[in-house]
Amino acid sequence: MERISPHQFMTLGAAVLMGGTFLLLAAGVTVASGRDGWMTVLPGFAVGIPYGLMVLSLLEQYPRKNLLRISEILLGKWVGKIIGFIYILIAGYYGGLVLAVLGEIFERSIMPLTPRWLFYLGGLVLVLYLVGSGIEVFARFSEILFPVIIIALMLNVVLTIPRIEQGELMPILSEGIKPLFYGVLKVMPFAMAYILFLAGILPFLPTSKQEIGQMKAGVWRAVFWVGIVDMLVVIVQILVFGPGETIRLANGILVLGKLVEVSRTVAGIESIFMGIWLGAMVIKICAYFFMTSWGLETVFNLKGFKWNVIVGVVFLGIAFGLPRGAYLLKELSIAESYLLCPFASVWIPILWGVSRWKKGAGV
């Protein structure tokens, strides 16, 4: 069976956690918490740390098994099958939604005359190639691309500093602390999406005590790397556009890319940024494609190229079946807040708690 190293685990996890969060996060947290929304980004991502540590502690007790298989062992075969079926539905639906968002963003931002199905098909072909090549190739792809994504985001942030309005972040906490709680709730689903990916990738991870310790440290690093970068992206959008315009723009980072100028001579380089961010979206879609495939294999013993093609067709069907514009982003938010986040936030602690109880009771 394929294996990935602790370093690849960290960079792959960070890339999956990052995904396309930088595209939509600023508007979401600003709606929830106003000009203080940037304060909620890092705490919202940090919620994923204890969940990640719980998942890795289950790996120590049940090596080479994903959480779907561990659920069958701890909770019974049929309860485990039901959980696995829910996992497949959520992963498949969310993956199709992200594919739809990819087409929406690229069509509206840089190629409005290009048919949307070309974006869907192009992204899906790359995903199918990565899935067919295996988890090791996917990990190496993420290991190379993740630093490039971070550098592109930081360049976008730094090169728009001349356009900031310093007073836009003031006054701090003018509406009190309560709105920050709602902002954290907006960020939490991204952390839970990362945790669900960890639930499926466990069989491909090393199992020695030292390497598990390194992966636990990798969870901390991944969360803080992504949390800090996304927080800076949100801060810059609020400083440049103001809270009201940040909410209205929805994909403000795309507009920031259009504002970038180098020495007042080179402008309009947002297409370069978009090419890099395409990779970030592909990583997210690929992660949920893998999760759907792992679920089908674990629950129904369905695997192979034929089933990968079927999953791809399902992703395309979901992407084509959804309306465009604001409805699509609303549907994505509903799936994150009412399907993905509740499922992960309840399933993982219950599984971890039952495992600890059985270990303590000697069952």
| Shape descriptor | globular
What is the count of distinct domains?
A: 1
Pattern of helices and strands: HHHHHHHHHHHEEHHH
Kindly name the structural category.
mainly alpha
- Which regions contain 5 or more consecutive residues with pLDDT less than 50? none
Helix count from the secondary structure assignment: 14
Average pLDDT for all residues:
89
Most strands sheet: 2 strands, antiparallel
Distance between the termini: 30 Å
Name the CATH superfamily assignment: Amino acid/polyamine transporter I
Strand content: under 5%
For the secondary structure, the number of strands is 2
Q: Do you know the CATH architecture?
A: Up-down Bundle
Order of strands in the sheet with most strands: 1-2
What is the CATH topology?
Amino acid/polyamine transporter I
Rg from alpha-carbon coordinates: 20 Å
Helical content (DSSP H or I, runs of 4+): over 70%
CATH class: Mainly Alpha
